[in-house]
Amino acid sequence: KLKVTMVAWDRYDATVITAVNNFLLKVWNSSTGQLLHSLSGHDDEVFVLEAHPFDQRIVLSAGHDGNIFVWDIDKGTKIRNYFNMIEGQGHGAVFDCKFSPDGQHFACTDSHGHLLLFGFGCNKYYEKIPDQMFFHTDYRPLIRDANNYVLDEQTQQAPHLMPPPFLVDVDGNPHPTRFQRLVPGRENCKDEQLIPQLGYVANGDGEVVEQVIGQQTNDQDESILDGMIRELQREQDLRLINEGETPPNPPLN
């Protein structure tokens, strides 16, 4: 039995585009209901249909087959196609896509956690960005207080009131300071407030080895990265007290 998996209107509501679970896209006249085009190209279900922000001819589709298509729905033809092949892992299903407001670029996300950026021009502006970027707080545990409010477990602060997070790789290792300054709120931080990537520590055999700072721990088995976050939170609370404001929670010891 055929099922519609996604529906989109063009920017001026003249046509309606539907994605069907037989992997076809159908373009309909929104006033008469007449079928204008059947677009073939996908070979798995499509859950992304995005109309261009101002050009009513252009629609983008993407699906679990890893294909991203840009269509001309006036002519019923394919303009461009990109296949999201991931080296050593096969293809990545595309879960979402959005155009930029000027219609010159679009961004997609896939099942492997990648952000794909498409557009005109060159990619030199993106080459300064690491391949892996996560906030160190992305997977930190949360708790609820007596009033049922959500708090960060370590700092006991509401997550949105915590200091700006640090950028880390997929293993939680912090990026160098030049990348940390890309985080809103850290643009003008001093070097000592930003996490260096590597340090030196003595191992169990007495040898001095290079190690990621974020993996080192202090005597309480707390990582140095977490310790710095705790200290930054304490400084922020003390600053609020000195300015005559009450912090959301008592300052941490």
UniProtKB/TrEMBL annotation:
One of its GO terms (cellular component) is nucleus. InterPro entries: Bromo_WD_repeat, WD40/YVTN_repeat-like_dom_sf, WD40_repeat_CS, WD40_repeat_dom_sf, WD40_rpt. SUPFAM superfamilies: WD40 repeat-like. It comes from the Eukaryota. GO terms for biological process: cytoskeleton organization; regulation of cell shape; regulation of transcription by RNA polymerase II. The lineage of its organism: Eukaryota, Metazoa, Chordata, Craniata, Vertebrata. This is BRWD3 protein. Keywords: Repeat, WD repeat. WD repeats lie at residues 39-81. It comes from Leiothrix lutea.
